[in-house]
Amino acid sequence: MxxxxxxxxxxxxxTQAKRIAGAHSLVHLSSGDLLRAERAAGTExxxxxxxxxxxxxxxPDELVTQVVxxxxxxxxxxxxxGVLLDGFPRTLSQAKDLDVTLTDIExxxxxxxxxxxxxxxxxxxxxxxxxxxxxxxVYHVKAKPPKRAGRCDVCGSEVVQRSDDAEExxxxxxxxxxxxxxxxxxxxxxxxxxxxxxxDMEIDxxxxxxxxxxxxxxxxx
Length: 221
Fold this sequence. Notes:
Blueprint: E1 3-6, H1 13-24, E2 27-30, H2 31-41, H3 44-54, H4 61-78, E3 83-86, H5 92-104, E4 111-116, H6 119-127, E5 129-131, E6 138-140, H7 167-180, H8 183-190, E7 194-198, H9 203-219
Parallel strand pairs: 1-3, 1-4, 2-3, 4-7
Antiparallel strand pairs: 5-6
Helix pairs in contact: 1-9, 2-3, 2-4, 4-5, 6-7
């Protein structure tokens, strides 16, 4: 059972990916996590990735693809349950490269779940997000404020707004998403794989909707 989780920034992909992967013993592959792990490992590929990350630049498409697909091959050669891809593919080129890799190893995607959310709701979600730079705990000024204003509940450090959660940056990220990633919706719709879930609901409700879709597009195949 191999699943792709799509959706704009702020739609809740990371939260839902962890839940779904945990429930079905899938390997959760996040492109961002994989790039950071490759960099930390100091491999030849990791050193190439570091040059861009250290300079604050986007890692080129071909390097991201290489890192993720190497890990997909590795996991599917040893794991019988499958993978959940979170944040990959981001472009049509990456989607096509993924198809080639899966065909080579006689695997396939059983469902592409697209989490949808209105732009203004995304802006409200992300601009209100605060995180702890020390332990990584995440809060929201309205939906989930820390118990003590401005201080992390876990370690007591000052919580901050990430630079990419500033409103002008969020809106630019949404524009990039529309240009680069939104075309994937039609790509997977044409392949008969796209399933959509409105993520403007309680977290548990969204999880339940995803599970219902997976029962029809993956479990019953």
